[in-house]
Amino acid sequence: MNTSFGNIKAVAKRELIGYFSSPVAYVFLTMFLLLSGFFTFMVGRAPFFEFGQASLVTFFIWLPWLFLFLVPAVGMRLWSEERRLGTIELLLTMPITAWQAIVGKFLASWLFLALALFLTMPLVFTVNYLGSPDNGVIFCSYVGCLLMAGGYLAVSCLTSAITRNQVVSFILSVVGCLFLILAGFPPVTEFLSKLTNTQWIVDGAASLSVITHFEGFQKGVLDSRDLIFFLSLIGFSLFTTGVILRGHRAG
Amino acid sequence: MIRVQNLSKSFGPKIAVNGVSFTVDRGEVLGFLGPNGAGKSTTMRMITGFIPPSAGSVRIGEFDMIEQPIPAKRLIGYLPENAPAYTDMTVFGFLNFTAELRGLRGEEKKKSIHRVVEMCFLETVLYQSVDTLSKGYRHRTCFAQSIIHDPDVLVLDEPTDGLDPNQKHEVRGLIKRMGEKKAIVFSTHILEEVEAACTRAIIIDRGQIVANGTPFELKQRSDVAGAVTLRAGGVNGTTLGQKLSQLSSARKTTLLKEESSGVTARVFPQPNCRNGDLARGIYETAAREGWKIEELHTEEGRLDEVFRSITMPDTVREEQK
Question: Which overall architecture, per CATH, does domain B2-220 show?
């Protein structure tokens, strides 16, 4: 157990060094903070100041959409870059298992996204200065955001294993995440019910929606079903990543 | 240390490696030869556990690569083809990362990095980013990675590719020295390399082993092996040919070059003639006839010729006609 933790740590450390030794990390953090600030304060029917409540709803409501583009940008290189450079051959002939490499890489990117979320803390201070928000709800929303980012990231991880082209990987992962958002939307559910006419398929698809599961967190409810949804989304995607990587090697 | 049995790999309908078996013991350096696309890299990838074989087995030390990949991989150092390295890291960062994956920590890790940096002459670029390195340095960085844990088994896919002649010489020397204590397999296109560094060579073509022996044994399979080449003045080609054909140990004489200053010819021995008989016979004939011998030597055989006649038998036969 000790060595597997050490291996995961070594892989994760390398990945983080990779982010910060290239412009990726700085561009991402700047863009994320600028965009999230812009949407929170400027966009929508009732942005932050006009909303009339001491809450961060105007911030959190945008995140599923913002993450839709930004998280795949973080995850697109995870495996496609390894395959393009050929370093995957080094990594997987080291005395580590494939899942240690997969988990290590995933955790590093997740940690990076957590850092991005952490840098939005000034919003929390601001809203606390201006009024008295329900900090439990805010905390809960942050947990939800982190899980949602993890879900998107795991999907990006999967798509980056499919191709050695980062652009293809990015597009596939945006489409995948978009499906996860739209699955619960009325146009999609109506389309599905027309198409299949079976209720359980429609409900099944709708329950895949990230939005539905994220809503609970935004209300301050930590529902085990939502937790299980995100964790199993991550687990399933990482497992599939492993299967795809093994498939490439088996030829 | 390395035991490969009946190793096969097919990608869809294409058979890349077909029933390859060999062993490499400690103290041996095995040269892996073959034309492009013969299955060298695929075989090496299976030995190092990067791709699973379609059939057959690989044993490293006492561990089977499929049953116990982790302890087997621990024993191997691997330099993949084209020497891949993370371009966004410094040389030190890269070596540090691979040392950690090899389970080295603390003082031990520091010492190992120091050792390989010295061995591969990387001091001057240690804190430089990998993507700014020249090809030779990048190659050496990846090579350093493969020996960082002082492995018992080394698998090197074209270790001298992209190096300048001095660096090539250096790496060959390194391989030869390390080969005294390790089991090494390396692939190459350069045939002198095999003679310079290998104790044994395997030629692989279209996924199958077509020759296996010491470099000397392989050279013996060359047509010119055992033939005597001479250059002599004071005689013309026709007389020289006539006189030498009378020797009992000579099978055939071919003129290579005829100039006014002298004649260069190659004399091929009879199949059962003893070593040295032919050269002595030629020397005695020359002394008797009063030819001025300028050069006289027995050919060891040429590896490139053997290589070509084995891997491209049809074209070589055409040419000889």
Answer: 3-Layer(aba) Sandwich (3.40)
- Minimum distance, in Å, between the CA of residue A15 and any CA atom of chain B: 10
What dotted CATH number matches B228-298? 3.30.70
A87–B145 CB contact, under 8 Å: no
Express each pLDDT in B147-177 by its tens digit.
999 999 999 999 888 788 888 888 888 898 8
CA dihedral B220, B224, B228, B229 (to 10 degrees): -140
Q: Which residue of A has its CA nearest to B81?
A: A86
Question: For residue B78, how far is the Cα from the chain centroid?
Answer: 17
The ipTM is 0.87
A92 touches chain B (CB under 8 A): yes
> Domain segments of chain B: what residues?
2-220, 228-298
C-alpha distances out from residue A76 to A80, A133, A166, A247, B130, Å: 7, 36, 6, 19, 21
Residue A120 has phi, psi (to 5 degrees) of -90, 5
What residues of chain B have any CB closer than 8 angstroms to a CB in chain A? Answer: 9-12, 45, 48-52, 70-71, 73-74, 76, 78, 80-82, 84-90, 93, 97-98, 100-103, 105, 129, 142, 145
